[in-house]
């Protein structure tokens, strides 16, 4: 993969819900190792955008390319297998499983064994299980939930459940990670730590698309930011550029001139 | 494997192995054989229900396919019982695959429950109108006792060890699945299907696989039943037994590897204790299921596990997980110390 070509290309993507455009003619790219922020007021189409990229929703028109290959229309589990990880705004953790088991399940992308091979503990199964355990433990440590590892995931506070979803997605060793409001429910300290973790991940070569309402976090960690409003791209640029654009300010605060 | 699990397993195995030494009465031993056969079906069904979270009300249909396929292969085609059992299991697995692919790819667990119910009714109807092939209402009698090579399993004691030996293998396989990535994948599907898909899990296909495995368990149990009793009739495999299997899953412990045996043995042996209720069996099952769902949603095994986790020196309350109000009620009921007094 060429370092100079984008890992993700969103090309003229459109999604209509019963005639109403949720995302309209949206184009942007994510480069390898880049952290791209995706912001916009409520209802701007951010989550829809992630659902379109990952195949959780069918697109109306337009194209999504991952590592140069068209992935439009692939279902969620197939985009996941191409090494696209994601988290959910409305949490989708496995409540009855422990924190560690959740993350171990996240290893499925690279660690799936045949059902029979696994159940009958045929050669290779044991070694694979050990490998899964190691990766899961290191991800639980990395995200800061080691002290919770054997707790049922449903018993965690919401903020920690969000961190757990990130650890679970990371366990699959993704090349691209799509995060849908990972800081919602985190306190200031946890949020600051999350920012540091995200920078560490991109420094390690991971590409991230980050939807986030908390402006401090987005502005401080993003290499570039795309601003959506009513499903259309309003602006794109560095945090500094975006912050000072009049269109962005009015989308968030209304047309008040005294803002 | 944890030491407490290993100890429990050894005690369980010793108990099952030693039991016939103390029970000389053939009638009781016969019921223990039947309890083992049913437990095998329920252990398989529990992987589908307890791990993947899918409901099947039609496993009596797969049980029937195993029993009738073994019967027809041995009596009409002259196969010996062991290859007949294997062929029956493969054929039943294929039926489950053909049934499972369309059902599990697009339907919810509730659609699956209704569709499998229709399946068992259909199988039952086929058995009744099958004429010379299935023997109609009166079924087919005269199956040879099970044998592998020159070893013939004749009589209650031999069948007891045969059946419970196979139950043991069935539990071993279920435990292997449960404790592996394959088991985690199924529990993830039960937890949240979209969440599971986002990890690259092909939810529909994983459901089909466990559906087929559970059908094969039922088929093997059906074959063993046919060879043990030497008689099959459609009434043994209708909607009633299918529902009873589900009752056993919930009663024993949904998702527990030994829950199938506990639930199966409990319900099969209960009528021996309360024989006068025979005509009210379904009603009694209903009351038991309702009671279990209300007060012990994790089943008998789940209840004992909670009590064990809460013993002095057990897991911390955090690790053991929160109790629902009803669970704490039943834990307190079963063991006063658990109230933390």
Q: Could you characterize the architecture of this molecule?
A:
The complex is a heterodimer of chains A (259) and B (341). Chain A is of the alpha/beta class. Chain A has two domains: 1-83 and 174-259, 3-Layer(aba) Sandwich (Rossmann fold), CATH 3.40.50; 95-173, no CATH class. Chain A contains eleven helices and ten strands. A six-stranded mixed beta sheet of chain A has the order 6-7-8-3-9-10, with helices on both faces. Chain A has a four-stranded antiparallel beta sheet with strand order 2-1-4-5, covered by helices on one side. The model of chain A has no long low-confidence stretch (mean pLDDT 90). Chain B has two domains: 22-273, ABC transporter involved in vitamin B12 uptake, BtuC (Orthogonal Bundle), CATH 1.10.3470; 279-341, no CATH class. In chain B, 72% of the residues lie in helices and 2% in strands. Chain B has helices spanning 3-22, 26-51, 59-75, 81-106, 109-129, 156-178, 181-191, 193-197, 203-229, 239-252, 259-273, 281-295, 299-309, 317-320, 325-334, and strands at residues 140-141, 147-148, 151-152, 231-232. Chain B has a two-stranded antiparallel ribbon with strand order 1-4. The longest helix of chain B is centred in the middle third of the chain and has 27 residues, at 203-229. Chain B starts with a helix and ends in a 7-residue tail after the last helix. At the A-B interface, helix 2, helix 3, helix 4, helix 5 and helix 6 of A face helix 6, helix 7, helix 8 and helix 9 of B.
